[in-house]
Amino acid sequence: MAKHIRLVSPIRPLELTPITALTAVLIAVPFVLTTYQTSITFEILRYAILGMALNLFYGLLGYVNFGQVAFYGLGAYATAVSVIVGVPLFLAPFVGGLIVAGLAYLLSLPLLRTRGIYFAIATLGLAETIRLSFLKIPFLGGSYGLVLHTSYQLVEAYYTLLAIFASLLAVTYLILKSSIGVELRAIREDEEAAESMGVNTVKYKRLVFTLSGFYTALAGGVFAWLSTYVNPETVFQTLTTIEMYIVVLIGGAGTMLGPVVGGIIFYISKINLLVNYPELHFLMFGALLTITVRLAPRGIVGGLEQYVRMRRIAKLRGRRA
Amino acid sequence: MLSAELLIQSVMFGFLQGGLYALASLGLMITWGVLRLVNVAHGEFLMVGAYASYWALTLMKGVAITTQVAAALLTSALLGLGLALLLYFSVIKQLAKVEVLASLLGLFGLSLIMINIIILIWTVDVRGVVLDFGYVTIGPVTLIGSRLVAFMIAIVLVGFLFLFLYKSYWGSALRAVMQNRRAAALVGINMDAIYMLGFTIGIVLASIAGGLVSWSIAHVEPFMGGAYTLKSFAIVLIGGVTNPVGILISAITFAAIESVFAVLTDPVYSMALALAVIVSAIVVRGEKLFG
Amino acid sequence: MTRVSVLKATGMSKKFGGVTAVDNVDIEVGRSEAVGLIGPNGAGKTTLLNMLSGLIKPDRGHVELEGKSVDGLRPHQLMRKGLARTFQIPKLFKQMTVLENVLVPLASTDMDGAAMHSKAAKLLKLVGLAGMENMLGSELSGGQQKLLEIARALTTEPKIVLMDEPLAGVHPQIKETILSTISDMKKGGVSFLIVSHDVKTITSISDRLVAMSSGKKIADGVPTEVMLSAEVVESYLGV
């Protein structure tokens, strides 16, 4: 089944400039900044990737997966197990990612028979079940987790993450510009109408679910590589899912750069918060989430895009009048 | 390994717990059915009610036990009422109009805020006041007095709820809105009033349930809400979102099964059970549950 | 003369709970033919349409498109085979632009970007929405939304279009546009099955009428014949 990607909107060099500039800057980071600063950038990239992966599913398709963190944790564990059985370190996250992608596809078969609220709760329930299972399964380390007997390799892990980040950017950009993007957004708007208009909704939902899971797992895998240690409490936290949503919402769901912007803002706020007001951090997350949903549902980039659109329409109307 | 005695004991134990679950689940049913709001913060309202009641009890040491129970009940109810009204006008009213899924996230945010506020006041230590009602022995089964009393109070309240839902104007209006929103609006029911009423009742029920937890189970901590939210959802999904009797039955059954499971295996597995139930129920019955 | 049948459905039945919505209905539409589907509220017309367009699975019944069975196919597959439909309350993609709305059905075809754009532009011009490409679906008036709904359905050059109340609550001028679009398409070989309350108008463009009442088909034939039939008159005057 050859999926030929046809562009529906033209690729504008102007849009590509910020991304290329950003990537160039990011490539230079380990050479120019200190180890500590590089690790901060690593974390920002990690959140950006998690946000972008979630964005594919929530932003483009419009489905709320409350168990997104499960992909992350499974990716981390799959990577850890790969390393333990002898897979080379730099390949391990991809092996882990592919394993989780396969799992995600299988899970999508029953899960995507539900929609909306039901899907959200089902995924939440499933993720929690997975977390509890990992706490109990003895050969996966139980609550102690698994240890990778490797060293701290920030630079290698950083560049791997950067490569993942760049590829995800490219994928998102192409989707948004192509016929696939049109079909996905149609599903988000009105699934029944989209189906009636020729969109194979089932195929696309499964595809995006799997893709989103794959990238989330990759991030988990690289995280495992860097921390050389995985355990259920760290990699299966529901709070991580919330963080992913905050990243997407602040930046702008459904936009390409939204989660990147969101990742930067979120992570910087998070460290500041943890340093200065550690006892308020739930509250701040919660407030951020509720306020963003209530007052700025389009996020920063989304709001900007809407503003630009409005201006363009007004100009067109003015010209005609 | 499981003697008949132990089995009956744990079933009865669960049975009593079911009363509390029923109260909480019926509250969820109302917010869901009336406002179409999937209240993922439901357990947190229960938690807040538990703390309110706990606080009242710490002030009333040495007072007659019935007064203590009454005070606890009143405090959790009042807090629930105040919180519901405050939140309704500031956040919920708008959230209910927002795209449903975005409102899920907004409510999640709310739950985080509530948890954090409680932590600031009471820290993460586990709290609770055990009220001593002695023990009641019926045949081979020994029941803890406080749990029995809590159960009875819960059942009485559920009874009042049923009376309200089936015998009063506002209750019937509530049910009408739960079953068919558009028709209800067309018939002239004051939708704004119903939404406010529905939300308030739902939250108050949760918070009273929490209050009962604080002195019967007496295990209160800031993160207790999540488990109750999940279990309430499981119970509502099995019982049927527009079926209060179904929910009552499924609450008690669920609690009994959970109790037996907890005795046979691990408490962690009983949680996994609840989740497995929800996930299967949703996947199998899907949207036909709601219409 | 053997009429070439584009859509042929036999024995269509559907029950919801205890209520029989559609009871053993046969319906056939030939090439370049417009069939009007009339009947009082609750007669089962929309349910029948939903079954024919794949949104609901029939309890019983068999559907053929150009002689080939299409039982069990999902709506998007039916669209690929040439069956399009519009909805009573337009199900537009509100947050997408007018142009994007029309691009959606094209996106699932093999056309390249430029071809899609020109096709979309052509169709928008046909229904009189040219120049509004960049407006959001939500910004259109009710009548314009109906036009867009139709444009969208016509985009993939369907062989038959199922329409649910295309003229309901529509400005007379837009009604004219819709009617003339239908008649133009008919000349080009497209068939129509149109559900409508407005019996008079529907009769003016229909070659045949099918009348339903309480889930059953009660009349099928030339408009004048059907309109004079006792059962049809009774179904409208009765309960």
From TrEMBL, chain A:
It comes from the Archaea. InterPro entries: ABC_transp_permease, LivM-like. Pfam families: BPD_transp_2 (PF02653). Keywords: Cell membrane, Membrane, Transmembrane, Transmembrane helix. One of its GO terms (molecular function) is branched-chain amino acid transmembrane transporter activity. GO terms for cellular component: plasma membrane. This is Branched-chain amino acid ABC transporter permease. It comes from Caldiarchaeum subterraneum. The lineage of its organism: Archaea, Nitrososphaerota, Candidatus Caldarchaeales, Candidatus Caldarchaeaceae, Candidatus Caldarchaeum.
Automatic annotation (TrEMBL), chain C:
The keyword Amino-acid biosynthesis does not apply. InterPro entries: AAA+_ATPase, ABC_AA/LPS_Transport, ABC_transporter-like_ATP-bd, ABC_transporter-like_CS, P-loop_NTPase. It comes from the Archaea. Coiled coil: none annotated. GO terms for molecular function: ATP binding; ATP hydrolysis activity. SMART domains: AAA. Residues 7-239 form the ABC transporter domain. It holds the Pfam family ABC_tran. Keywords: ATP-binding, Nucleotide-binding, Transport. GO terms for cellular component: plasma membrane. CDD domains: ABC_Mj1267_LivG_branched. PROSITE patterns: ABC_TRANSPORTER_1 (PS00211), ABC_TRANSPORTER_2 (PS50893). This is ABC transporter ATP-binding protein. It comes from Caldiarchaeum subterraneum. The lineage of its organism: Archaea, Nitrososphaerota, Candidatus Caldarchaeales, Candidatus Caldarchaeaceae, Candidatus Caldarchaeum.
